[in-house]
Design goal:
heterodimer; A: alpha+beta; Alpha-Beta Plaits; 17% strand; B: mainly alpha; globular
């Protein structure tokens, strides 16, 4: 994951895009947003989140509960239970300052989970959402080892009564999907909705590529950071107040 | 003599095939709500898997929703009214026919065998 590598990828991407224009001038292959209209997800959009740890309240886990309800997770916290989002408390021992924040898949621009996947089951959608294609996943769990955020879970047991919109099954790896089924119909992720309902508004979801979106405006005006920015993965989840 | 024998054999085999079509071996399926399918019956019988397999890649990897073929749509129409599912017994739509054809579908290890709620879900 060196910078040289990234540059090379971007160069190849641009080269391919140019080739695409040369092949079909005037033909738009992708439109802006995925949805029920039968159009694919577009690379013009990059979905992301801004989490304001100052607004995130200690003891509140509404985002975690909402995620479990939406995606049909058990809500258990054993090492074998699927956890797509976790509440984390950080404490600076010197100053005594403590922080609360939710941690989940960071939807990296350069996702290590995608790099290591031997079957290309881990993939990044055109709009930046990192997903597992469970039709291809063989359950090897390389991606779980590669993820620096410990964001992925493995399904150990047979499951029943899954949410019809969120297929999940034994022997596959899974993680936060940014509620892709909701996003595709123009809604926001369940955690953001729950946080807003609780009156905290610590989670803001939006298009990082649109300079007019609320998330882009906030990122331009306040200091935000990415977790383990040193890895150069460019996560789509940003944090404020860290 | 040979011709007579052939005729008798042929007639016998024909009657056997005819009776097999209406025998108790064919699955008695509860087709649920049913109605007009996305393709005709013969196409669906022989090619339904190719149709939904194509759609699954389009939807999962590219994010194309609302396609003509969708497993969730199959379940919505064909879930039994008795147990609200396409699985459960040899009368249920998916299980019944796959049992008859001795094929084990693994769709429902991950996908729900129950229809989506009436409130607008993603197709």
């Amino acid at each position: 994951m060196s910078e040289i590598n990234n540059d090379r990828r971007q160069f190849m991407g641009k080269a391919l895009a140019m080739a695409g224009i040369a092949i079909a001038p005037g033909v738009m292959l992708y439109d802006v947003k995925a949805g029920n209209d039968g159009k694919p997800a577009s690379s013009k959009v990059r979905w992301g989140m801004l989490i304001d740890s100052n607004q995130c309240k200690e003891g509140c886990d509404d985002c975690v509960t909402a995620c479990s309800t939406e995606n049909g997770l058990s809500g258990g916290k054993k090492s074998t239970d699927s956890q797509w989002i976790r509440k984390v408390e950080l404490k600076d021992m010197r100053s005594g300052r403590s922080l609360n924040l939710p941690m989940m898949c960071q939807h990296c621009e350069q996702p290590p989970c995608v790099d290591v996947c031997p079957t290309q089951a881990s993939f990044k959608r055109a709009d930046g959402i990192v997903l597992v294609d469970k039709h291809r996943c063989i359950g090897c769990r390389y991606c779980m080892m590669a993820c620096p955020y410990k964001a992925r879970s493995f399904v150990h047991e047979e499951l029943h009564d899954q949410n019809p919109e969120v297929p999940r099954g034994k022997g596959t790896v899974e993680s936060c999907t940014l509620c892709v089924h909701r996003v595709d119909r123009g809604e926001s992720p369940a955690c953001m909705e729950a946080c807003a309902k609780a009156g905290h508004n610590a989670i803001l979801f939006g298009d990082l590529n649109d300079p007019e979106s609320e998330i882009s405006k906030r990122i331009r005006t306040v200091a935000t950071s990415q977790i383990r920015a040193d890895l150069g993965l460019n996560p789509g989840i940003r944090y404020q107040g860290m | 003599m040979l011709r007579l024998l052939t005729t008798i054999l042929l007639a016998c085999s024909l009657s056997c095939t005819a009776s097999a079509h209406e025998s108790s071996f064919t699955p008695k399926l509860d087709i649920g709500k049913g109605g007009k399918c996305v393709e005709d019956e013969a196409t669906m019988r022989s090619h339904h898997y190719e149709l939904i397999r194509h759609q699954r890649d389009e939807t999962t990897r590219k994010g194309i929703r609302g396609g003509k073929y969708s497993l969730a749509d199959c379940v919505d129409c064909h879930a039994s009214k008795k147990n609200n599912s396409v699985l459960g017994s040899s009368e249920n739509f998916c299980q019944g026919c796959h049992e008859y054809a001795a094929v084990k579908p693994d769709c429902f290890e991950c996908h729900s065998s129950k229809p989506r709620k009436a409130a607008g879900g993603v197709k």
